[in-house]
């Protein structure tokens, strides 16, 4: 009887740090999850303290032009999130989530240390601008930029490794087969997003204030200390964590299906079930669908496959894939149109930490005697995200539940609403920038801070933040619920790449606009935003127009996705009824 009771306390698919079956009384739960949440809090605090104010460091300390500064930050942000795919492959196939977090937290710490050191030694940064020479500034040289790039991309590498694993490792601490722990895991996601928001809020207020009002050395040094604290807290929970074995990367499975389908492209398509390979048990099989039929050839058993199975008992996965594996790849392929249409939102997101911050740096930011750092205006962005989520949960959900019996907006509606609000944010940004440029034209070029309040920028920050609250949560819901069970980590990485590509598209747009509008040494995006020849308002209007076109494309893709899903569900139900 004791043995039976004890067996119910074991987690079937997890081990402790010694490799023995994990026991619920000594591993996992909230105590372990708290150590993991502390990593996310510290990572967000450190990363956002660097990211949000990086554009002012590039322009104000390294003396890069505004457009180039914006492009550097956008590219860095894009690569940071793209590296989550690399980290995900390492975690799923080789290192496991624990070692991935431990190693890349150390990498993040080293990168922030190097960034802090680069602000200490005078030879690693250009001299301050000389006011007596009409603010003539010396741009950072090759060595100085090299040290800067090495430091921020080391931080990016650390971010990519942490981001892909920390939420998954947190959920590993709860047993989904235990009703009590399953409920705790649902609560974990709420706390996870709360910690992200808190970390970001502290970053854009306290830490940016330290960077601007104390010194960059103390600001970036504090980021290093925070990441060291995160590493210590994470390692302190080593003996209490639950560990799960590496199951292999879903990316490998996708490549296997694609490679086999290409190899067998000359085979005739067959509807004969006996000629199709399937190894999954009946309850976990995914019914075959007609969409992307060319991929079905990866599951056709030819003579070579029969010979291999006779010799070894199992087929070569690079020569034959099961129907369920093929259908899982199809499910991922169906996500791509929606994935494409959400990239444009993060182009707008990129403006909030680049040009919007640069705009604020040229405007009056004082409240009495207190001067608000330009980067701290992102507090309106973060606050608006939390406000939008609160409005949905406390107002929209009860209202729709009462009128329609639904639990709030659907994931597609959330994304659509968010994309629409993001267009409004760019429209407001274009209007306010037009007003700011009028003031700039009537003010002496020697004046760096224009006589116009930076609080005119609040609407664009608030609208962009509200948009993110809807888009982000809608995306998470979409990518997790519409992806195969075995590819949830892959779908999370796919979601993160929308942020990555949004930053890349922003950087590409800036480069294209600068080149296309170059006339007589001037363009829409000049080095100095107070230049009367600048047309940042036109750039914002263009982004709004592109976003409106993108919204139309999204609505079409969402309608198509839902129609196809209904067809697949009907076919699956019909097949189940005939069995």
Automatic annotation (TrEMBL):
Swiss-Prot/TrEMBL GO biological process terms: oligopeptide transport; transmembrane transport
Annotated keywords: Membrane, Transmembrane, Transmembrane helix
Transmembrane stretches, start-end: 73-91, 98-121, 141-162, 192-211, 217-235, 335-358, 370-391, 412-432, 452-473, 494-513, 538-557
Protein localization: Membrane
An MF annotation (GO) of this entry: transmembrane transporter activity
Main location: membrane
GO cellular component, one term: membrane
Membrane topology value: Multi-pass membrane protein
Pfam family, one: PTR2
PROSITE patterns xref list: PTR2_1 (PS01022)
Family to which the UniProt record says this protein belongs: Belongs to the major facilitator superfamily. Proton-dependent oligopeptide transporter (POT/PTR) (TC 2.A.17) family. Belongs to the major facilitator superfamily. Phosphate:H(+) symporter (TC 2.A.1.9) family.
Official protein name in the record: Major facilitator superfamily (MFS) profile domain-containing protein
Classification lineage: Eukaryota, Viridiplantae, Streptophyta, Embryophyta, Tracheophyta
